Amino acid sequence: MQEVKAVVRGTVCVVALVVALTGCGGEGNTAVGGIGSGDGKGKTSGALSAEQVRSALPTNESLGEIFVGNDAVVGEGEQARQHCAEQTGTTCNGMVAVGHKEAAVRGKASGDEVEFTLFSFDSPQAASAAAKGLAAKIRGREPAPTQIAAGADETEGFTNGRKRTDVVMRVDNVLAYVLASTSNSDNVKQVATQQVDLIKKAARQP
């Protein structure tokens, strides 16, 4: 399978994850070997499968005129769960799939960047536990809390007061983490809201 290496600059770093997965990469390449009970394809009742996670990540078209990104990286399996555990400080039991995408301002007009990371779980409770763990790790850097109304079931936002905003959200069974390196709060809300909408749309897919 095609090997894809992602260069990640935020809190959630998927480089080791991508290298370790049995398969991952651009469109049509998804790791095999699901976690937990289900249909053998990484899908548990109520959870987003690996392909649904891929479809829940923003595309260059959906990012619009502001940002353009690289190919999404999606994976599943025990090594993906271990990566989730390392990043959130929780066990991540019941994790089904992980996905990641990065984007930067078109034309490099500024150094603004945004990263999207999704962890799909087999229950809202498992996703909530991981979200709380990730938020606690971010809180340990002593950032200032910030309000981000993006339509998620649970949301915690943090800013360093300069050019970094971390948004940790739970949307049903999915932990969504948006790291925005920008001082434009409107852009942060826009991409966070888009991420929530895409997760909800993916959940309606068969």
Show the helix and strand layout.
Layout lengths: L14 H6 L29 H7 L3 H4 L3 E3 L3 E3 L2 H11 L6 E11 L7 E9 L2 H16 L4 E3 L7 E6 L5 E7 L2 E8 L3 H19 L3
Antiparallel strand pairs: 1-3, 2-3, 3-4, 4-8, 5-6, 6-7, 7-8
Write structural notes for this entry.
- This protein is of the alpha+beta class and 206 residues long.
- The chain has helices at 15-20, 50-56, 60-63, 78-88, 124-139, 185-203, and strands spanning 67-69, 73-75, 95-105, 113-121, 144-146, 154-159, 165-171, 174-181.
- Strands 1, 2, 3, 4, 5, 6, 7 and 8 form an eight-stranded antiparallel sheet that branches.
- Helix 2 packs antiparallel against helix 6.
- Mean pLDDT is 79; it is low at 1-43.
Key terms for this structure?
single chain; 206 residues; alpha+beta; 6 helices; globular; disordered N terminus
Name the helicity range.
25-40%
Structural class: alpha+beta
- Give me the count of strands: 8
Kindly report the average pLDDT value. Answer: 79
End-to-end gap: 25 Å
- Are there runs of 5+ residues with pLDDT below 50, and where? 1-43
